Amino acid sequence: MQIAETLLIAIDELSKLPGIGKKTAQRLALHIIKADKESAEKLAKAIIDLKEKLMLCKKCFNLSEDELCDICKNPKRDQSLICVVEEVSDVIAIEKSHEFNGLYHVLGGVLSPLMGIGAENLRIKELINRFHDEEIKEVILALNPDTEGETTSLYLAKLIKPLGIKVTRIARGIPIGGDLEFADEATIGKAMLNRIDL
Amino acid sequence: MILSLMELRNFRKHINTNLRFSEGLNYIVGGNGIGKTTVLEAIYLMCSTKSFYAKDFEMLNFNASEFEVKGLFKGITTDKVRVYYRSADLKKYYFLNDKIITRSSDVIGKFPVVTLTPDDHSITQGAPSDRRRFVDSVISQASKTYLNFLIDYNKTLKHRAVVLTKLSERIIPSLLDELDAWTENLINNGTEIILHRKNFIKRFNEYLKQSYFKIMGNDELPEIKYQTIDIGDEENIKGRLTDLITQNRENEIRRGANLIGPHRDDFIFEINGINLKTFGSQGQNKTFQTVLRFAEFFYLKDITGNTPIFLLDDVFGELDAFRASKVSEYLKEVGQAFITLTDFANFKYLSKTETDLVIKLQDGETVYV
Lengths: 198, 369
Description:
heterodimer; A: alpha/beta; two-stranded antiparallel sheet; 6 strands; globular; B: alpha/beta; 6-stranded antiparallel β-sheet; 6-stranded mixed β-sheet
């Protein structure tokens, strides 16, 4: 059976997206064909805008429509507090909690010599430069609690502490709203080790 | 937990074998190559989701395209297990009570199992890594926290080795800072591993003594000695590990390798203070291996509160009549056990009560003697 080349190209491009296989890509393409022209144009524009309008914030490397992102520009946010995260998706996750009112710094990964990622591949120099340009009192390390994230935290702490800046790390333990009985043993074990006084 | 029924289809030599088991001892008897060990392998597969040693496809009968192992476990609850493999998918599927299980960690620990196989000779006679594997597997079965420290530690070692190799070629100051971070992580996880191993050995030695006495019936004293970093009298393991790594920093960089830490630990097995590996006979080694597994059994039973199923593959082949009869006496305290034998007639000194079963495998047939 012959399939129109235009459709094949669309399926091929869509199936390059994460989590989209050939079949889903085909469904999406056929759906777009059926829909009215306006919604197809909106989708196309939204995709183009992602590339054209968005850039990385000069200061924190979060996604931004300006040189500085909305968080860095907001004078109501605590300018003396920086939360260090791995990726932009982590900023989104923490922002959703509405519990953090400081600034961010997106490292762009963690130390992983096996994958060929060293300190020079991360935005560490840029972070250190911020301590000269800004009045930073505390750095909160919010990296993933795995081997690589843990080591990167240790690395950063050693680098930042001598500058007279307080360094903290987010707590780890039992998820809120989850039943204790459903938490895995490793999490409960860590939560026990990291227990706090009441 | 008791395994009461098992069905094997196209599982190695077993085209269609149905077995019922006693809640006590189950002697599995038959000639060479008839599939006795395979019965243990199938039980192990249901308990742990994998074979002792083989890959999934190796368990498939040569003339078949799929195999199936079904079992009925009885404890406080009754659980149906089904393991199904299809060569078309190159994949095996594990079902617990007709529901598919995708993460093996959801099953591991539910049906605890302890195995004694001829491969155990490497524990007392092989390399330090064989002994570490034995100790790690026992502690991990009782403590997921330990397992996590171990996984983290091993990952840290790999990353750190890459950094050390780079530094051995050329010293880059910023890379030295990275090394320090990996070192700190290695010290944190390494300290926990040493502490866990130290406490474990102390506790496990009690179980070892008891099992040894049951099998040997004399006042010889078995002991495992933990050989780790040179702690000296120091209580502060973390401080000592830090000191040692600091002292060896240049050496590690020059060699480009991780030289200090519990990945180089060893465990020395002794009888009355005499090193088994150096001075023990084959029989003493075999006895010690048997004792280790019995100690593991009772240790896990106490710690997890769940009685393991005991699988003994060809244990009596290398033991003298006296020790073999002691082992079979001792097995009465275990609960359910599965023991392979080449020919039961030659083993008159083995104990067998009314409830115990002798299951004779013959070509395509199962006979309960």
